[in-house]
Amino acid sequence: MLEVLLAQAFWLVGSAYAANAFPPLIAGHRPLDKGKMFHNRRLLGDGKTIEGTVAGILFGLFYGAVQILVQPYIPLSVGGKDLGLLTITPAIVILLVAGTMIGDIAGSFIKRRVRLERGASAPIMDQLGFVIVALLLVSLVAPISIEIWIILVVLTPVIHWLANLIGYYAMHVKKTPW
Ligand code: CTP
Ligand code: MG
C-alpha cells in the first residue's frame, strides 16, 4: 500500500519538483525585484532572478508536458496492485508550477521582512513552502488525499535537503548547503 501511495505522490508532484530544482542551475543575474526596496530591505533579494524564474517555469511545464504525453503508455498496475495515478492535465501542471514559484517567491518576501539575508536558512519554509502552495492550488482542480499530503510534507524536506547537499558539495551550484 505504501509503495502505491509513494508512486501516486511523486507522480503528482513531479512538475513542482522540476520547477523548484531548476533555478539554482541557472546563474541568473537580473533580480526579479529589480533591486527594489520595501521598508528598507530588499523586496525579494538577489536570490530570485528573472532567468531562474523563467527557467523554473519552463522546465516545470516541460516536465508536465512529458507526463501528459507518456501517461497513456505507463502501467496502471504493478504486481496486481492498481497504482491509481492521477491523470495529469494541463491545469494541474500549470497550478503546480505556479504554486511552486509563488511559494518560493513568497518565502523570500517573508524572509526579507524578518531580516533574514539572501541565502539565510529558514527551516521548514525553505523546503516546504513551494510544495504546500503547489498542492493547495492543485487541490482546486484535483482531489489530493490526506495520505499524499502527509507523504509529501514529510519527504519533501528530506529530498530537498539531499538535493541541496549534492548541489553544494558535488555540483557547486548552491551557495549554501541548504
Ligand atoms: N534562483 C533564481 N531564481 C529563482 C529561484 C532561485 O535565480 N526564482 C537561484 C538563485 O541563484 C538562488 C538559488 O537559485 O540563489 C537558490 O535558490 P533559493 O535557495 O531559493 O534562494 P536563496 O539564494 O537562498 O535566497 P532566499 O534567501 O531569498 O531564499
Ligand atoms: Mg536558499
Short description:
The protein is built from five helices and four strands; from the N terminus they run H-E-E-H-E-E-H-H-H. With 178 residues, the chain is mainly α.
Could you explain how this protein is built, in words?
This protein has 178 residues and is mostly helical. It has one domain (2-151). Helices cover 58% and strands 4% of the residues. The chain contains five helices and four strands, in the order αββαββααα. The protein has helices at residues 2-21, 50-70, 90-113, 125-138, 146-170, and strands at residues 37-38, 41-42, 77-78, 81-82. The chain has a two-stranded antiparallel ribbon. Strands 3-4 form a two-stranded antiparallel sheet. A hairpin with a 2-residue loop joins strand 3 (77-78) and strand 4 (81-82). Helix 1 (2-21) runs antiparallel to helix 2 (50-70), helix 1 (2-21) packs across helix 5 and helix 4 packs across helix 5. The chain is elongated, with a radius of gyration of 17 Å. The two termini are 32 Å apart. 32% of the residues are buried. The model has no long low-confidence stretch (mean pLDDT 95). The chain binds cytidine-5'-triphosphate and magnesium ion. Magnesium ion binds at residues 119, 126.
